[in-house]
Design goal:
The structure is a homodimer. Chain A starts with 6 loop residues before the first helix and ends in a 9-residue tail after the last strand. The first copy, chain A, is of the alpha/beta class. In chain A, helix 1 packs across helix 2 and helix 5 packs across helix 13. Chain A has a six-stranded parallel beta sheet, with helices on both faces. A four-stranded parallel beta sheet of chain A has the order 7-6-8-9, sandwiched between helices. The first copy, chain A, is built from 13 helices and twelve strands. Chain A binds a DNA duplex through helix 2 and helix 4.
Chain lengths: 343, 343
DNA sequence: TTGAAAGCGTTACCAC
DNA sequence: GTGGTAACGCTTTCAA
């Protein structure tokens, strides 16, 4: 692999000055057309491409870069968060380096390092399920690079964040099912021991407690929702397990809409009528939730708005000293057909 | 906004040399611990952060960046393409700058310029519907930055691409409907005059011709599918128009699954039974297509694989002189309930 | 119309 | 231990 052609190479070969070459290549005036032609020809032959590093350094112009790291990039919620971030970023001439951690803390750490090496002026990230706060976040805070955490939370994190009230969402969803006469409410949850899944689960349990119902261990199914292409299937399987119980549930609160769709699948195939025999509430307000039949009641999560706010917080954090920005979005329950009550 | 602190600022303030400051900040040996402490303190106070441009220029090393520009980032197909690109990129220590053109050629051009300013070593893009080849692509080719076009095509483009056989997909979908006994097949198409939409439309027309059917102008509805949140509605409206005709169609081939879902919506609300009274085929194999009822027959598009290949092509193009890499994926028809034939 | 030279901020080398 | 200085490749100013 030969070395990259630079202005000097062209100048030397033609026995002229760097400046002249520069003028030719940048369409400046004051240049002999014939020499210009020669220069362009040689430049083309040598495959000259300007070194943007040098150009930017000289011009002292650099487009700011922000690193965005998400667990799963082709997940509707996360890709919508990314869209929200980009909407703001583009309007402020900031570029986004995006990465996908695939729920792998090692990968997460590696990508964060690369972001830092690349010189991002900030990081917006949704941590993986098992993210290591010490290893991933501390070094970034140490380098005084602004960071905004979205969607999930670290235990002792005290920095900028944009979250949703998952506990409240789980509580509302469960309470809604109770209000509509369901008694034996199951919950299909994710494997998270921290954050999101756990919060929704806590909300579910708390709502049962508040109604004087003792949560039934058998009604809580933990399932792996990491692979977006398999989640619906997981919901289906979990429902199958629930309906093998001596006393199957009469309602399911699912940790995500995709899981809920798996529940609906199972119900349809087994002639369990919704909402009469089985009430269902999902979580996310995915597009599909409104087009599946029966239409799925769900907890609304506004990824776009969260993304926008996260970027705003990055901007604010960049130009403030140590001030911290935090927001927890309340979640609204969208009531549709799948939870309208028993016959 | 004050100027950014640099090594010289710290050196001047402490009356020492740049070199010493440099050593302190980069944990080099040969430095007095006391001066080092002072330097670190001041650096911290001034919020010193190294200028990466200068560092990289000097070290002549930079993590390669590839710009990826997609029309809509939270669209399942495109976010899956992005996932495919990232899978390859991460494994090769390349970072991805992602951008969203929102189907706006002006925005597209602007983001491409920013990518180039940022010094990307390549670009992978799905052009917007009205992308201007001259304006968007030529300047990049001119700077000899490798570019890989995915999903859509420019008329006279002769570079690297990864496409799907949209014509073939449209042909297969239409032929399948014909094979199942539908006679009056309508097509809800996008407004594209080039690429995707037009190709699928051509496939539709060609399949009709091949069967000796003269395409009926009234059965071809062009609709705007730019706004992902409104596409289903557009499909609904288009279907309403079709059913106002004196002789409504008995089948619809929809340019996307979302459009097809709008068709199904309309049919359900108007007691038109699927597939007996109306056969439907969509396009994309979106997740939803398999969970809506009746399950939607559709043409399969593998975004992940396309993304991976696009990145491979970028890699190959980077290390070859002028060689061109092109691939058109065949598309498979997935036959489900929505097109099983007339009663 | 052309060229020399001084930067941009960091790093590496050599001398003190 | 410390400091001077020459690069990295491009852009801009000033002089010829």
């Amino acid at each position: 692999m030969s070395k990259r052609t630079k202005l000097k190479d062209i100048a030397d070969q033609l026995g002229i000055s760097i400046t002249t070459v520069y003028r030719a290549l940048n369409n400046k005036s004051d240049i002999n057309l014939e020499t210009k032609r020669e220069i362009l020809e040689l430049a083309n032959k040598l495959g000259y491409r300007p070194n943007l590093l040098a150009t930017s350094l000289r011009k002292n112009k650099m487009i700011p870069l922000v690193g965005v790291l998400l667990p799963i990039i082709n997940h509707y919620f996360f890709s919508t968060v990314l869209k929200g971030i980009m909407a703001k970023a583009h309007s402020q001439n900031t570029l986004i380096i995006a990465g996908e951690s695939l729920q792998n803390p090692v990968k997460e750490k590696k990508i964060l390092d690369q972001f830092m090496d690349q010189g991002v002026s900030g990081i917006i990230m949704a941590p993986t399920r098992n993210s290591n706060f010490e290893k991933s976040i501390i070094p970034i805070l140490h380098k005084r690079t602004p960071i905004v955490i979205i969607d999930r939370m670290y235990d002792h994190y005290r920095g900028n964040y944009v979250l949703t009230d998952d506990f409240g969402g789980g509580f509302k969803a469960t309470q809604h099912l109770l209000d509509n006469g369901y008694k034996r409410i199951a919950h299909i949850s994710s494997l998270d021991n921290i954050s999101i899944g756990a919060e929704r689960r806590k909300g579910y349990i708390e709502a049962l407690n508040a109604a004087g119902i003792i949560p039934n261990e058998e009604y809580i199914i933990l399932t792996d929702i990491d692979n977006p292409d398999a989640v619906i299937e997981k919901g289906y399987e979990a429902t199958a397990r629930l309906f093998k119980l001596k006393n199957p549930p009469d309602a399911v609160f699912a940790v995500t809409d995709d899981i809920a769709i798996g529940v609906i699948e199972y119900a349809k195939e087994n002639n369990i009528s919704i909402p009469e025999d089985l009430g269902i509430v999902g979580f996310s307000n995915s597009k599909m939730s409104n087009y599946i039949r029966p239409r799925l009641s769900t907890v609304e999560q506004n990824g776009f708005e969260m993304g926008q706010l996260a970027f705003d917080y990055f901007t604010k954090a960049s130009s403030s000293y140590g001030e911290v920005f935090q927001k927890t979005f309340d979640l609204n329950l969208i009531i549709r057909e799948s939870s309208l009550g028993k016959k």
